[in-house]
Amino acid sequence: MSTAFDVVVIGAGPGGYIAAIRAAQLGLNTACIDEWKNDKGGPALGGTCTNVGCIPSKALLQSSENYEHAGHHFAAHGIGMEGLSLDLARMLGRKDAIVKQNNDGILYLFKKNKVTFFHGRGSFVSAEGGAYRIAVAGDKPESIVARHVVVATGSNPRPLPGAAFDEQSILSNDGALRMASVPKTLGVIGSGVIGLEMGSVWRRLGAKVTVLEALPEFLGAVDTQVAKEAHKAFTKQGLNIELGCGIAEVKSGKGGVSVAYVDAKGGAQTLVVDKLIVSIGRVANTIGLNAQAVGLTLDERGAIGVDDACRTNLPNVWAVGDVVRGPMLAHKAEEEGVAVAESIAGQHGHVDFNLIPWVIYTSPEIAWVGQTEQQLKASGRAYKGGSFPFMANGRARALGDTGGFVKMLADARTDEILGVHIVGPFASELIAEAVVAMAFKASAEDIARICHAHPSLSESTKEAALAVDKRSLNF
Q1: What is the pLDDT of residues 158-184, one digit of tens each?
Q2: CATH architecture assigned to 170-280
Q3: Which segments of the chain have a pLDDT < 70?
Q4: CA distances from 316 to 161, 459, 475 (A)
Q5: Catalytic residue, candidates 119, 148, 421, 454
Q6: Do the Cβ atoms of 338 and 349 come closer than 8 Å?
Q7: Could you say which of 2.30.110.10, 3.30.390.30, 3.40.50.1580, 3.20.20.140 is the CATH number of the domain covering 364-468?
Q8: Is 454 a catalytic residue?
Q9: Model pTM?
Q10: Cα–Cα distance, 422 to 256 (Å, whole number)
């Protein structure tokens, strides 16, 4: 006899495990299937985000930033450092320990919320009598039946044609987090979030890093003013960023990795590096899902088609996260997971895709929500804007981190906040205030009238709001 559930979630990344927990909280008999394994073959819940993405990358970003501060910035605080050394194995061990804490935490949450967990690869078998049969391929093969299925199988790194990942010389985000030694030279193809974050980690630890980007503009999706400020900061730090590059050929051998490319001026160039990180995007992970067995529609890229409520073409089959349209962000997946669980339970699940914050955890951090200035100009919407530099903020001065600014854009007539863009210290934390404000349709004047603690970085958000009305007080 097959075990029957109200809801089966395939995938335990941010979208999947959150969907399973919320469904269980709402009284639905819920199971979650996930195939990730740790080094010992046990379950490693959390998907790409926890295992080879968000969590380990932030751990290494923090460690590498501490190392750089010790070597270059502590002296200004009156702290002398002699004999500074790098124990990379210990640094990587700390990262792995943090990953395991998150893996174990999700298992605990499943037990707490009575979510049944199956360790293995989940795939569709058939649709029968208003339910779906799901196979679990693993150490203990299972066959289960679900009234509702939520597909949350995530994404995989997109390989460069002719340069398959070997995770030794040509690296995806996985290999980039596992290098046992600091390469003398490192190439990065792609200047998106992963490329910039991983390039920053290894540059801080001593690698000479060159980033090759195909697009003619740096961070084209980011507000232009913010992108220019970030480019200036990264270049000053030592990241060599080349834009408008067309990759012709990648060869890997004993001497390292050779990248033949055409530069922005049309000249043929060759970059030879010890290691190469390829970060040119990600693709939906639907191989092995056996979608055709039940008629689940996939697009030409292998992604699952859904509507705004994450419904697929099949009744009671839903999909969330990287496997569907929209930004491949863990927090977007989580919000979709909650919304789907609530919809299944008869509630009104909803995600406002216009209010999903974006963050790049480099130094300076970059964060934004809403529309950029170039988007507002292109749409013809009348707007006004204000910005405030961190160099004029007392807390930023005390931190010794005064680069960047907060920028706020508001409707010219109603003053409603349309976008907030931050480049500078703790931008990832500061952006939350902007999301809350925009969710409640706040005006720039509303933020300007709210008391912010002094001294705090958040005062820069208030000052940017004041600047929208051209009445900044501290700049």
Answers
A1: 999 999 999 999 999 999 999 999 999
A2: 3-Layer(bba) Sandwich (3.50)
A3: 1-2
A4: 37, 47, 55
A5: 454
A6: yes
A7: 3.30.390.30
A8: yes
A9: 0.97
A10: 38
